[in-house]
Every structure is written in structure tokens, then in C-alpha cells.
Fold:
Amino acid sequence: MAGASELFRRKAIDAPAGPEKLKRVLGSGHLIALGIGCTIGAGLFSLTGIAAAENAGPAVVLSYIIAAIACGFAALCYSELASMIPVSGSAYTYAYVAFGEFVAWIIGWDLVLEYTVGAATVSVSWSSYVTSLLAGHGITFSPRLTASPFETVTLADGSVVHGIANLPAVLIIVFISLLLIRGVSESARVNAAIVVIKLAVIAAVICFGLPYVSMANYHPFIPDNTGTFGHFGWSGIMRAAGTVFFAYIGFDAVSTAAQETRNPSRDMPIGIIGSLVVCVTVYVAFSLVLTGIVNYHDMIGDAAPVATAIDRTPFGWLKILVKLGIVCGFTSVLLVLLMGQSRVFFAMSRDGLLPAIFSRTHRRFQTPWLSNLFFMCLTSMLCAFLPISELGHMTSIGTLLAFLLVCAGVIVLRRTAPEQVRRFKVPGGDIIPSLGILSCLVVMLSLDVLTWVRLVVWLVIGLVIYFAYSRHHSLEAKKAP
Structure:
């Protein structure tokens, strides 16, 4: 077994990035768009109604604000570390510098799960919405080509059969992967265009719905608790905050693009914090209008509260627009997840923990194209052949673990590397990082036991790979006497 000194050997903050270079083409505007692209997805249209109906009523607006504050702790910590360690890898790289190789491997392996399973799950949802949108215009797919072999579908003649593969989900994964190989600047432009469409759709729902808001639906703004913890009252607001917390997950993917940013020490904090500010503004405005049009009592058991709200306006075409917004939301989330995954693998490969093939960049496009191709194939197989919707919580627990270690990393590096230049520093000493650790732990402990079991199984697989391969090929190990 490896000794403690080997397991916790740390990477120098100013260590060279390695021979393989990524093209620095992104500015702060691109980074804000990436953060919005990965954060605002379909959760806005579904979680808001669920949290209002079951937990908080109109006060779900406060839940979004509380969740944003909790996420803000992590965002500020990400910003400080990104300003002092401006290379690819996100939480993996920060953990390598702060805690050492073993912890870095755990968080890197954890991010593999977060991004890959997340992308596969989102692509399946993307497929569902796109086929529904096209069906409304008379374009249909065979049901067997939109479901996995483990799922059953009903054919036109009424017969029930098993699916073959989710073809639309595979096609969107392949398209986005090839776009990412083509270049990060091209990918950023496509993402920016999608984000503009997505925000325009949300703005349309807010603006056209505003005149149909009934002030009576806001009374009482904080419904009385029913006697059960989490069922309205302030406990309900806090329970709803835990539910909508996951609507903010995604801004951390911004930090994976540090090595492709023109001025990372300045632009990364702007991108991370800026995207979070935009998202909380959108979430608060949307939830305020939704609960103003539809009374929270009427949302109980309603799978599509936004559609119910639109039915109470004369604008039927808004339903089609909402579906378009959801598709755009899924598309931008996929783009950022697949980009983030390939960059984490790039960083781990560059450090010797994974085979060197994953850190090779394309001669012309200067992108980690082999890593992109690997995850294109892996994610395509997952979304085509597995019913992975149940693994959605795995993305959440993986992200929360990354958040926790980043917050802890700020505290550690302030003691081990106090002289390092920090273009951005979290105010208030260790208070905010400590609150970030506490809030992440609270939300993680609220997840079900099966989610924790799956995480432990995945980490055990990762430990086998680490002790069998990674620790022997680590560049830090080769530097050691």
C-alpha cells in the first residue's frame, strides 16, 4: 500500500500546465454564458411548482434566495481558487494543490460520474422533449428508437414492446461532441446563442404572464405550518430551499475552462459570480409570476404547472415557446457538461493519473479531441441503452462533494500558501468557506441512502484504478526522490 506521504503529495500552485496547450479565447462574457447555460435548465419549469405546492407556497421565492446564498458561499470560494490556480480541472486541480493527490483523485473520479451521468440523463430528457415538440408538427419517430431496451413502449397498433435505443439522445451527444472538438470559441458562440433564446423564452413567460397575476394568490405569502416539519411555514421554506438548491448546480463547470480563458485570474471570478447573479434574478422573477398566476393549492399533483399558468392567459402559443426554451436549456447544459468532463480528464491525464492519450490536443483545433471522443462514445452508450433517470441524484451528490472540498480548500490554502497572489479573495475570513461546508453537508445528508451507496460503490471502483495504475504513473511520484 502507498505510504501517507505518497497519498498526500501535493502539486505546487505554480506548477507548469504541461506541454499540451489549450487555446485561450474565452472572456468574462463567454464564462457568464457558460455558467447560465449549465445552470438554467428544465428544473426551473418543474422544481418551482413542486416546491411551492408541497413545501413553501408563494414563499418559494424566499427558498430560491436562501438556496442562492448557500450556493453563493461555494461560488465565492471557487472564485478565489480560480484566481490563484488558473488551470483546467476545476475542483480536481484545487484539491490536488490543497489536500494532495489521493483527495484529488477522489474528487476527479467523482466529477467523472457527475458530468457523465449528468450528460446522459439530460440527453434522455432532451430526446423526450424534442420528439414531443416535433410530434406537434406532424414529425414522428418510431417509439422503439426513443427508448432503451429496458423500457417498454406502446406502438400504434396497441402492442407493448421493448425499446431498441434512444437514437435522438445519441444524436445530440454526437453533435455537441463534434462541436467541442471543432473548437471552444465556436462552442462558446453556439452556447451564447442558445442562452439568449432560453432567456428570451423565460422573459416572454414572465412578461406575458405578469398582467394575469392575482394578488390574492400571494395571501398568505408564508402559509401556516400544518404541524409537520417541512410542510409550509419557515420549515417548509427551508425544505423547499433544499429542493431548489439543485436548480443552481452548474456554475462550477465554468472553472473547468480556466486554461482556455484569456485572463483567468480576472475573468473567472466575474464568470462564476456573474452567472449566479443572473440565475437567481431569473429564478426569483419566474417563481413570483408563476405563484401569482396559479394558486399554490392548484399546483398539488400538477406535473406541468407552467402549462397550467399559460392556460390562464390567452397566449396558447406560449406552450410551444416553453417547450423550445426547455430544449434550449437542455442543449446548453449538455454542451457545458461535456466540455467540463473532457477538461477534467485532460487535467488528470496531464498529471499522469490517467493515460497520456486523454491530454493530447488536436493539432489544428487545440482541443482535447480524444477525450471528447471517448466521452462521446461512453455517454452515447449510457443514454442509448440504459434507463438512467434514477441516477439523477448522483449528479447532485457529486457536485455537493466538489463544493464542500473547494470551500475547505480555501481555508487550507490560506494557511499553507498565504503568500500566493489572489486577484479575488472571499471576504470575512473563514466564515463564508465554513458556511459553505456546513450548507453542503446539510443538503448531502438530506439525500437518500441509495444515492450514498451508489457514490461509495463508484468511489471504490476509482480506488482500485488509483492503486493499480494512477499512483505509479503520477508525475508528482516521478518527481519524488
Q: What stands out?
A: Strands lie at 152-154, 160-162. The chain has one domain: 4-10+24-476. The first strand starts at residue 152 and ends at 154.
